Structures are given as C-alpha cells and as structure tokens.
Amino acid sequence: MSHDPAEQVVRIALLACAVVSIAGILLIAVFISAPGLPLIMRVGPLSFLSGTVWAPTSGKFGILPMIVGSMVVAAGCLFLAIPCGIACAIYLAEFAPEGFGRAVRLALGVLAGIPSVVYGFYGLVVIVPIIRETFGGSGLSVLAGSLVLAIMVLPTIATISEDAIKAVPDEYREGSMALGATRWETVSRVIVPAARSGITASIVLGMGRAIGETMALIMVTGNAPRFPAKITDMVRTLTGNVALEMGYAAGDHQKALLATGLVLLVFIMILNWIAVAVSKAGDRHEKA
C-alpha cells in the first residue's frame, strides 16, 4: 500500500464516492419498501402482481395491466432500436469515414442529451398525428410510445455496441482477411460474434432505459390502465402510473404507488444483473 499522502486522499475520496452511491441506492430501496412492502403483503403478492383492476379508491390494486404495458412498449422499442443501433455501430466502427463518423457520433451524443420531455413533445405533435391519420383512433398508443422510446434508446445501443466492436483485437480481422474472407464476411462472421457480449449488454441497458422512461411515455401512450389488444391501443406503464397519481394519492393509494415503484426497482435490478452476467460471460469466453 502506498504511503503517499496525496494518493491516500484520492483513495479515501474515491471510497467515499463509492459508499455514497451504495448508500443512495439502499436509502431509495428502504424509502420505497417501508410503506410499499407491507401493502403488497396485505393485498397479497400474487394479487398485487397479477390483479387486472387498478381502482385505488375501491381498494383494488392490481398492476398487471401496467406491467404488461411497460413490457409491450419496451419490446416494441427494442424491436425498432436493436437493428438500427447495431447497424449504426457496425458502420461507425468498421466502415465510416473519419469525418462523417465523428459527425454521427456527435449527433448520437446530442440525441442522448435531449430531455425526455422534448422527445414526448415531438411524439405528441408529430408521431401521434401520423399514427392517428394512418391507423385511426386517437394516435396515443403503444406504437407511439415504442417509436419515441426507440429514438431515445438508439444512442445507448449504438454507442456501447460500437465500443464493443472496436474492442475486438485487430488479429481477428487480419486473420479472417488472410484466410480470404471479404470485409463484410469478416465483420458479420467474426467481429460481431466476438463482440456479442458487449452488444448484448447494450441491448439490456437500452431495455432498462425503456422500462424506466416516464415523461415521454405519459405524453404519447394515452395512460389507460388496461390490456392493449393491438399496437394502436392506449396503455399505461408502471412509471406513468406512479407519476400520474402520486400528486394526489394518500393512504393505501400512496402506498400502492410506492409498491409499484418497488416492483419497477426490482425489474431494473434484474436487468442490470443480466447485463453484468452477460459481460462476465463474454470475458470468460474470450479468456478461454
């Protein structure tokens, strides 16, 4: 261990930052669980998670429609964002001219930094009217939410996937080309499979962003707590349920919303665990 005072100060400062991060997560978990978990146990975990009726004033706290709504919107988002994100990453990492690639990366950085309320407003005034004129109905729908989320998630998938592709050793490229493979065959059959752990992690993190998004979805999904039968139906997500009702909720209603947040927190933790597990699996595969 170093005895340099400056290094000791830096070490303690970094340790303090790490401890504060962990403490923050634990405090949030305790804050949500303290009122939310007793409500779940009183209603019954199965009834709370699988109930189909959300009527807090009548004592009915089923959040299954919101769970399904969140998953359907996230699935639609990833269906659109994964091909575009990975294709963008491959182009940037392997084919893009330096100047144009720099411009695309700058655009992706700007997309990642735009506030979600701006995406929601764009979806409300552009995407929703297009869906309404094309498919009928109000336009506020699963499809509108998926399209807006896909635009928001695209920078996450493209940027992390590009880093994963660039991290593949050049020996892989040189070996494949030396065996007579074309550039595209090398990319599609050697580089992308070698970077699959990082690409998978980018998809999982993108899904985490999609599950956790709130403001944009409130503005474009219609916020109806019911099961969607088609992609043009209205839907309400878990995050939207909390944000819409927390302002006037009290008593068991408020506890049920915090319990909804607890379910959402568990979802996000599971997704992060999957991302870490995939990344470690990839590292073990590369070392083997």
Number of helices: 12
H-E string? HHEEHHHHHHHHHH
| pLDDT < 50 runs, ≥5 residues | none
Strand order of the largest sheet: 1-2
Q: What profile does the largest beta sheet have? A: 2 strands, antiparallel
Helix content range: over 70%
Overall, the morphology is globular
Query: What percentage of the residues does DSSP assign to strands (E)?
Result: under 5%
Average predicted confidence as pLDDT:
89
Computed CA radius of gyration, to the nearest angstrom:
22 Å
Q: Which structural category do the helix and sheet elements fall into?
A: mainly alpha
Distance between the termini: 32 Å
Number of DSSP-assigned strands: 2
Question: Can you put this structure into words, describing what you see?
Answer:
The mean pLDDT is 89. Helix content is 78%, strand content 1%. 38% of the residues are buried. The longest helix is centred in the first third of the chain and has 39 residues, at 5-43. The two termini are 32 Å apart. A hairpin with a 4-residue loop joins strand 1 and strand 2 (60-61). It has a two-stranded antiparallel ribbon. It contains 12 helices and 2 strands; from the N terminus they run H-H-E-E-H-H-H-H-H-H-H-H-H-H. The chain has helices at residues 5-43, 45-50, 64-95, 98-113, 116-135, 142-166, 170-178, 183-194, 196-212, 215-220, 238-245, 252-287; strands spanning 54-55, 60-61. With 288 residues, the chain is an all-alpha fold.
